[in-house]
């Protein structure tokens, strides 16, 4: 077994060219951890926000190996790990925030942050799922109840979280209205199963509430964007409805929560990794998500693939926002 591996790290914050190829020691798993031979990772906004220095509390120690999502083959298990063995194909969210991440030949992480990979898609593609699918799942199951024929509004529907949100909403039987800023993004949302699409850049909230939510308001508004979208969500939701979001660290007028007796649910999906606690919920949810993928309910859309050594190009594309679904990074 080699003692050294290739990793792509940042030594300081900066633009996408700050990534460096380096050699690190192959990490040893602790008693409750797995070591995974990395097949692929994917890009999430949290990865470039960490690289930019926007969320220093999430940054792994420098030199920092970034990226949260991973798929690969279990290479070694700690002495207390019973649910996995070497050779298992897994996917998970073991680090990349708070601890070293997946842009390397091997990653170690708490066994609870992994599950067996879906069998019906290539192992590499499974790395497109953890962060976005866990987030969409927690928004729509932990933070809201979405029932048959409920009116569900999905913002950012062509993005990573949104494209899974549309598919889950449809599976719950909701009437899904999806937003997209371009025709291409709206067409994509329709192909994912959205019943209606809205160009929110050219349509007032009252107009799409009137057209797709009987003028009363949506039962649930799914907001993976925050800021202006979160404020608009409070206008688009019906009295006693629910707004679920990934981003509430902005300043908002929350008087609508009181005026309309609303529920507000916020997800921080990486929290178990940051806390080093309650990791098992990640693995349990990923096991459910793998079943949904194998049943054809959830299909991850990989728009572009990059080799690890081209991580700077992947970050540039992600930050420009000119893609649909996910950007995959493959450990070639
Ligand atoms: N709290 C958590 O646990 C958690 C988990 C996952 C993601 N997130 C956050 O949720 C957000 C979405 O994640 P994602 O993976 O879906 O991202 P993504 O794949 O980049 O997609 C984001 C979508 O949001 C829309 N959008 C509207 N305004 C935007 C803006 N100012 N900047 C970027 N996108 C904008 C875009 O669609 P249109 O062009 O149609 O508007 C875009 O397709 C990110 O901020 C991410 O950090 C948080």
UniProtKB/TrEMBL annotation:
Tell me a Gene Ontology molecular-function term this record carries.
anion binding
User: GO CC: one term?
Assistant: cytoplasm
Looking up Gene3D superfamilies in the UniProt record yields:
Medium-chain alcohol dehydrogenases, catalytic domain (3.90.180.10), NAD(P)-binding Rossmann-like Domain (3.40.50.720)
Q: Where in the cell is it found?
A: Cytoplasm
Which GO terms are recorded in the biological process aspect for this UniProt protein?
A: small molecule metabolic process
What SMART domains does the database record attribute to this sequence? PKS_ER (SM00829)
Q: Which UniProt keywords apply?
A: Cytoplasm, NADP, RNA-binding
Listed name of the protein:
Alcohol dehydrogenase zinc-binding domain protein
Instruction: Tell me which species this is from.
Output: Haloarcula japonica (strain ATCC 49778 / DSM 6131 / JCM 7785 / NBRC 101032 / NCIMB 13157 / TR-1)
């Amino acid at each position: 077994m080699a003692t050294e591996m290739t990793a792509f790290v940042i030594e300081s914050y900066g633009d996408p060219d700050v990534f460096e190829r380096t050699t690190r020691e192959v990490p040893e798993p602790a008693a409750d951890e797995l070591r995974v031979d990395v097949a692929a990772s994917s890009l999430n906004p949290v990865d470039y926000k960490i690289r930019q220095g926007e969320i220093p509390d999430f940054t792994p120690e420098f030199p920092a190996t970034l990226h949260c999502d991973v798929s690969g083959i279990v290479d070694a298990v700690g002495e207390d790990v019973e649910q996995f063995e070497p050779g298992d194909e897994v996917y998970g969210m073991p680090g990349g925030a708070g601890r070293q991440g997946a842009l390397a030949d091997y990653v170690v992480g708490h066994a609870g942050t992994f599950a067996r990979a879906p069998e019906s898609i290539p192992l590499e593609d499974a790395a497109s799922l953890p962060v976005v699918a866990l987030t969409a799942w927690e928004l729509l199951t932990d933070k809201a109840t979405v029932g048959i024929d409920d009116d569900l509004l999905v913002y950012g529907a062509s993005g990573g979280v949104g494209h899974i949100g549309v598919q889950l909403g449809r599976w719950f039987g909701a009437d899904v209205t999806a937003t997209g800023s371009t025709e291409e993004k709206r067409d994509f949302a329709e192909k994912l199963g959205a019943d209606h699409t809205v160009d929110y850049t050219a349509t007032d909230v009252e107009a799409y509430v009137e057209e797709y939510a009987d003028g009363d308001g949506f039962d649930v508004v799914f907001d993976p964007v925050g800021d202006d979208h979160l404020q608009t969500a409070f206008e688009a939701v019906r009295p006693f409805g629910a707004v679920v979001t990934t981003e509430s660290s902005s300043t908002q007028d929350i008087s609508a929560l009181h005026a309309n007796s609303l529920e507000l649910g916020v997800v921080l999906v990486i929290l178990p990794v940051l806390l080093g606690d309650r990791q098992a919920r990640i693995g349990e949810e990923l096991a459910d998500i793998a079943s949904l993928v194998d049943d054809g309910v959830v299909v991850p859309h990989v728009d572009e693939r990059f080799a690890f050594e081209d991580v700077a190009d992947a970050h540039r594309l992600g930050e420009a926002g000119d893609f649909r679904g996910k950007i995959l990074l493959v450990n070639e």
